[in-house]
Structures are given as structure tokens and as C-alpha cells.
Amino acid sequence: MNPLFRRFSIVLFVFIFTIGILFIFLPQFIWGILTLFEVLSIVLSMYIVFKKNDVTSVKVAWVLTLYFLPIIGSFIYLFFGRSNLKSNAIQQKEQEMLVHYVQSINSNQRLESASLLEERNERLAKKSVLGGNQFEVLTDGEETFAAIFKKLNEAEHHIHLFYFIIKEDELADRLRKILIKKAKEGVNVRFGVDGLGSVKLSDAYLESLRAVQIEVEIFNPIHSFYHLSRANWRNHRKVIIVDGKVGFTGGLNIGNEYLGITPKFSHWRDTHLQITGPLVTQLQETFLYDWLYMKNSAGTASKFMSETYFPLGSTGTDEGQVIYGGPYDQERVVRDVLFNLIDSAKGKVSIASPYLVPDDEMLALLRRVARNGVKVEVIIPGKGDRKLSYYGNDFYLETLVSAGIDVYKYDDTAFLHCKVMIIDEEVATIGSTNFDIRSFDINHEVSAILYNGQAIHRLSEAFKRDRDNSKQITIRELAQRSTWKKIKGKICGLFAPLL
């Protein structure tokens, strides 16, 4: 067990034990404490309703938690519900310098004949649509990690790597050995992980990297109770850049389960993307934007502003755009670009996501598009990795299916973890972004938008195979669910936005 959580468990046990003793010997004191927490929960609820800018479903989930569990709910909200995630003056200045530099590079590579959709997404995301790329879709763990390890072994100048989760197992050890070997060869290696997603990554693992001069940074590490206030605001991105020329992003973290080596599932279905060409500059920007936040040091950005880290040159004919965002942004860029794409559909929208917890606006948009005659098809897991999220998916099924949306549940012995959307088989998205409120509003996410090329065809073919390996959900089947299953879906749907 992580030392922080061990300490937290001890404190919680002592607190409960003390309350129990007081309840036995000083019942009036206990009733006073309960009244105090009731008042606190009411105050917090009013703050959430009137002051917070969260979407309605998130507010409802917090208010219900505080209403039904005033003591536990108050502690959870005070520790996990508030965001103190803001870049300080140094971080902001460094990040702004980086973004301005990349924008100046991309302005010279921008497509001269962009479509209306591309122009709108450029204005919305403030990221240019770039041509001259080559995209390669990787549709499982074996294919993905073979491609990643091959490119890592070919690195000559630098390796930049950030992951939400790195599980310390055989796959992570293979990664560690490659990074150490390349560092000894003189390659500059920068290694970042999320402080909660990779909380179980041992000090020994990290120190073995630092011992060969690999730079290691943790995004929002949780070292004390004070840091618990930012535990809910995580960096969910998965990004690798090699020599500024090749980049990877998508759904796969580092761990044996992403290879399908897990007793819980017969197969792990996931999708990743390999990018070569000018668009790697935007993926590089994504990594360095987080790196500057983690380093928090003046002058850091300037050493990356060169052709060494942002080389130019076309490698293909594919057009694309990398967008990223998080809770530090005033606008929810990733979500809004997805809105644009769905709203542009003329014939078909295809979505695959392990978690389906759309906010009110996204739910209304999907229903409207489907009712307008656009074919909307969604694939979700037939077996979940987290019960609350899995049953939370069910909360939205009837609303979706009743609007004419085709919803499928994937093979119930396997797990579908890919995050893919395809519009009219002409535009596609792939990245770390789930189709849920957490990805839209709370997590730091990244997605690549593909505007043409064979990669979209491959994503479409993979979607069709997944659909053929799934079972369609019907209104009749939903009506025939047991009362208990319906109740579980309703309850989990109410609280799923908090996960």
C-alpha cells in the first residue's frame, strides 16, 4: 500500500474509533457533531449550486453525496472536489512562450485550402490543421508496443514520454531498460507520469532512471493530506515523441493488461496512433506544455525552441490536428471540437468508448443528430473494469436508444478501451479522451483529429469488426431488465460524473 494511503487509513480508523467512543459516552456531543456536518453539507451544497461552474449532472452528484452522506461527503468534497490546479506566473509565462513559438512554426505549414470544418476547428482550438503527415493506426497492445519500442530504440537525440498509468510489471520493465540504454548512449530522456494514476510506481523504478541522468517529473504528486485537494484533477494523456519526428498517442497505458495479459478479460481491445510529419510539433507542444508545468522553472521553455525539438519536413499526404486541454483552461477545447465534428455529420457518426457519461449538452446533441436522420452508432464495453462506471453507462442507454441511436455492447468476456470517433468515414478522432464528463471537464486530455487518409479507413474497418463482435441493445431488452438492474443503473448514473 502507498505510504500516503496507509497514513490516511490510519487517520480514518482513529477518527472513526474516537467518534465511536464519544458516541457511547458522550451522545450529546455526537449529535452536535452530526448537526455541524449537516450544516456544513448544506453550505457546501449551496456553494456548488450557485458558485461552481460544473455541468448540472456533476452538481447533482455532489449535492446527493452531501445530502445522503453528510460526514463522508463533506470530507470527500473538501479533499477531492475542489480544484487548486492553476499555473503560477512562471509556469504561465513559460507555457505561453512555448505555444506562441509552435504557432509561429505551424502558421508556415498550415493548409492553404482548409475546409469549413477545418477552419472552424482551427479557430476553436487555436491549432492549425497541418498536411504532409503519415498516420498509422495500431489496433492492439502487441502492435502498439512493438511500434513504440522500435522507435524508442532508434532515438538519436531525445525521447519525451508521459503516461497516466505505468504499472510496474514486465512491460514497464522492458520500457525502463530501453530508456536506460538510450540514456547511456547520450539520448536526452524526459519521463513524466501522473501522480495518482501511477501512484504505485516505486521509488526504486524512478531512481533507476534518475541514476542515468533521465529527467523524471510527476504531475501533481500526492505526498501529503494537503495534496489530496488536487487528487481529482488528473493528467490522463498518453504521449511519446522521439526526436521530434515520430509521435504516439491513444488509449493504451503501460502495463501487462494492455497486452491482454489479465485474468479478468479474455482480450483487451484498444487503439493507438503513430504520427510522423509536421503534426508531431503539436504533440511535442502537448508534452512540453505539461513538462513546463511540472518543472516550474524560469527559462525552461527557451531551450526547446529550436529545430532540434521541432524539425520541419513532410513525410506523407495526411492532414490532421492535435488538440489538448484540461481544467486549467477557460474553455473545454477538446469537448467543443468533438461537438463541432458531430454537428458536421451528414450521414454517420461512429463512437467507441469504454465510458459513456455524456453531459447534458452532448446528450442533447447526439439525440438531435440522430433524430435528424444521421446514423449514430455507439460501442461500449460488455464487461466493465469498474462497476460504478459500467452501470453508469446503463443510465443513458434508454435515452440514446429511444432517439434512434444504435448502441452496442462489446464482447462480454473482453474489455473495449479504445477512444475513437469517426464522422462520415471522412474525419476521425483518436486519443486519450473518453466520452464522459471526466474527460470533458476534469481530466487533462489529448486527441488527434484526422481529416483524410487511409488511417480513417482502417479505423472504420476496425469499428465494423468491433460492432460485429458486439450485441445491439434494444428498447425491448432495456424494458425487460430486472427492477434491481434498473435501480443500479439509475443510482450509478447519478454518481458516475464524479469518477
UniProtKB/TrEMBL annotation:
GO terms for molecular function: cardiolipin synthase activity. It is an enzyme of class 2 (transferase). This is Cardiolipin synthase. GO terms for cellular component: plasma membrane. The chain crosses the membrane at residues 7-25, 31-50, 62-80. It is found in: Cell membrane. It comes from Enterococcus rotai. SUPFAM superfamilies: Phospholipase D/nuclease (SSF56024). Residues 231-258, 412-439 form the PLD phosphodiesterase domain. Keywords: Cell membrane, Lipid biosynthesis, Lipid metabolism, Membrane, Phospholipid biosynthesis, Phospholipid metabolism, Repeat, Transferase, Transmembrane, Transmembrane helix. Its main location: membrane. It comes from the Bacteria. Its EC number is 2.7.8.-. GO terms for biological process: cardiolipin biosynthetic process. Pfam families: PLDc_2, PLDc_N. It is a multi-pass membrane protein. InterPro entries: Cardiolipin_synthase, CLS_N, PLD-like_dom, PLipase_D/transphosphatidylase.
